[in-house]
Amino acid sequence: MRICLLTSTPGHPLLAATSALLAGRHEVSALTPDGSADPGELADVYLLKARTPAALALARRLEAQGAPVLNSAASTELCQDRVLMAELAEHAGLPFATTTAVDRLAALGPVEHPLVVKSRHSRRGDLVARVTDAAELRALADHWPDEPVVVQDLAPTTGWDHKLWVIAGEVFAELRHSELAPGPRRSARRLTVPRPWAELALQVGEVFGLDVYGVDILDVAGEPLIVDINAFPGIRGQAGAPSALAALALEVAAGRRRPRTVSAPAEERAAA
């Protein structure tokens, strides 16, 4: 089988470990989706790790030629827009944090209670910050003057993020000290996922048409609250993740499984 990684960082731990499992019996290559990439002869499956506009455009071209792409370009793009993400989650009845779009931080009204502000468009190095007063808001607005953002209430939590990752229905998890929590960062902890939370993570994949993804969940008085969804995250340090990804790639490459994608209504919302 020919497996191609769409990424500028094929040495990423997850990708490198997956490639090592596949090498020998299968051909594994990497293609940097920089806008000028020539895919040449089609591979049997493409793993879309990059999420740049050029990567999405390349993935769409490959899909149009009949090549399977994990995750699909449509599902990946949907997860880049946190407004569309929240709208689809709400439409599906998922417990997602109430999310409000703001054109720029200077347009945000008085800070009456602690907030979380994030770049509307998810990308490497985007804005994710806690805001508790007007001074913090002004400082962020000065540094990010033209950034479209989304605003969520700062949920009353334990200060730990529940990071759930899913590869073809297999759930991996870790408890991480929130970057928004006050005080020094603490080391990550192992996490045994409650069955309802694991089922919630699997439902996210069905709704968003994802095969490889991450779900960030907060524990709010014992109830799960989703605050973000990521297509093809890093999934570092999770035993079994590379083998699960390798198995998924081979299933799709052999035609025994088709990549998921968002439903037509979701695609229409993303295009609106």
Automatic annotation (TrEMBL):
Q: Does the keyword Ribosomal protein apply?
A: yes
Ordered alphabetically, the record's keywords are: Ligase, Ribonucleoprotein, Ribosomal protein
**Superkingdom per UniProt:** Bacteria
For this UniProt entry, which residues form the secretion signal?
A: none
Instruction: For this entry, list what GO says about its biological process.
Output: SOS response
Instruction: Tell me the GO molecular function terms.
Output: ribosomal S6-glutamic acid ligase activity
All copies of domain ATP-grasp fold RimK-type, residue ranges: 111-237
**What is one GO cellular-component annotation here?**
cytoplasm
Write down the InterPro entries for this protein, in alphabetical order.
ATP-grasp_RimK-type (IPR013651)
This one is known as: Ribosomal protein S6--L-glutamate ligase
Q: Please tell me the species this chain comes from.
A: Kitasatospora atroaurantiaca
